[in-house]
Amino acid sequence: MKRQRWGTRFAFVLAAIGSAAGLGNAWRFPYKAYENGGGAFFIPYFIALFIVGIPLLIAEFAIGQGFQSSAPKSMAKISKKFEFAGWWAVLSAAIITFYYSVIMGWIFNYLLFSLNVSWGNNTGDFFVSFLNRSSGPENVGGIVLPIAIGLALSWLWVYFILRKGTSSVGKTVAWTVPLPTILLVILGIRGMTLEGSASGLEYLFSPNFSQLTSATTWVEAVGQIFFSLSLGFGIMIAYGSYNTKKSDINNNSMIVAFGNSATSFLAAIAVFSILGYMANIQGVQVPDVVNGGIGLAFITYPQAISLLPGGVIVQAIFGLLFFVMLLTLGIDSVFSLVEAVESAFSDKFLITKKKFLITFITIGFLLGLFFSTQGGIFWLDIFDHFVGTYSLLVVGILETIIFGWYVGADNIREYVNSVSEIKIGKWFEYALKYVIPILLIFVFVRGAIEEFKTPYEGYEPWALITGVSIVLLSFVVGIVFTILKPKDKKDYTKKELLTNLESEE
Amino acid sequence: MSLGAWIVMIGSGVILFGGLFYFLGIAFKKSNKK
Predict the structure, then answer these.
(1) Lowest CB count within 10 Å: A26, A86, A395, B26, which one?
(2) A141 near A374, Cβ under 8 Å?
(3) Record: contact B13-A205, CB cut-off 8 A
(4) What is this model's ipTM?
(5) Any CB–CB contact under 8 A between A205 and chain B?
(6) Chain B: residue nearest A257 by CA?
(7) What's the CATH number of domain A9-502, 1.20.1740, 1.10.3470, 3.90.1070, 1.10.10?
(8) pLDDT digits 0-9 by tens, A269-295
(9) pTM for the full model?
(10) Residue closest to A183 by CA, chosen among A324, A27, A300
(11) Residue B9 to residue A269, Cβ atoms within 8 A
């Protein structure tokens, strides 16, 4: 099967930025920055960007592009015993699409609600009644129809984006990547021109240097960079594999990493300026209104929109702008996750794109219905906490060991420098071999200890054990896929790996 | 806003957007050479 190619270099760069810049940029970064020292957080954040994010991004692009294969096949080319790590990555990606598409379904509904600002002033109660939320994960309840319809729309959109591979993806990202940036600028400018916005920005940017002595701040910065750049899913490996072997890697990685962080920065201004206004109007302090995650997007921000001057029409316009921004930020991430899975199945089982998409999207929709139930939000939260954190961390740690030690950080550096406009120094090798694995192991161990000390969100142990089981299940299924015979029956050797990395196309 | 907050906001913006446009510039220069 001939490998698909990106139409232009910028289609690839935009698709990679689109994948990295997702909902987390809008609702995770601003909150993390605020929580961990405000302006002082930017110091560990930038350090983590340079010593964790950029080197790992370069390594993932290099492996995909060098081996011209998806994550599992690239790993298999390195050594058959590592193929499971690639499958673990893409299976985690698959699981994430099952609930991420449900959040997209919520956003579709909120787009409609924006038209007449139906959430009113009590946005918390509105959100709970929209979800028809049950009392906890033990009460799954029935499927909430509007969410299921939104879910179907999300999957339909993903199908149309991916149906023609890189050519249809290229056309989509040409507008879904710049649009949220433009919308964030508009929301930021509106936010900054509101009375009280400066107090919100003061909380965000005023540096509290004492926080830099706390390990938590550094761990959060490493985590933010790692989770934000779509690393450990196999996405960047798959996207890199659609480039020719002589395509630039270092400069593209820099553009993607800076583009992603710039989006987070804009989002932080848009969010905190309006939170400052909201606190001012309500006569409370900014910390009283600060929120992160789902609560920020569906409760706090809509409430701030309800308080905007200019009447319902203006509020509706800003509601629409906000939710279109979220929708376009999110969709690039969803389809990139699906693409990582698609490329893996296509490489190993030679399954056609159409057949894969129809099968996967049907399964994705059916499993997504579970997260569209009355208790779905609790399960979404539990799955995201375990799969979206621990699976990714383990895959990230495995990648640094496989790439840095087995492929050889020096080999990767030699390859990327041979095809790139800007050259990277020896620091890359130290980062990939020592610094990143140690930091990721630290983040993992610290998080795991915390799990034992305090049950996540106070959920019952059985619910949390289910979350851990899903992580383990994706590992076991990864092993099963590794054992299955590939359709192309090609035997890869380490010798081929080295020629693969060094040979010209 | 305090001076510290201004410095962080403008400094971070300059690093991020400066970096982004710097690397975009290199890429454009190369594609124009071709």
Answers:
(1) B26
(2) yes
(3) no
(4) 0.95
(5) yes
(6) B20
(7) 1.20.1740
(8) 999 999 999 999 999 999 998 888 888
(9) 0.93
(10) A324
(11) yes
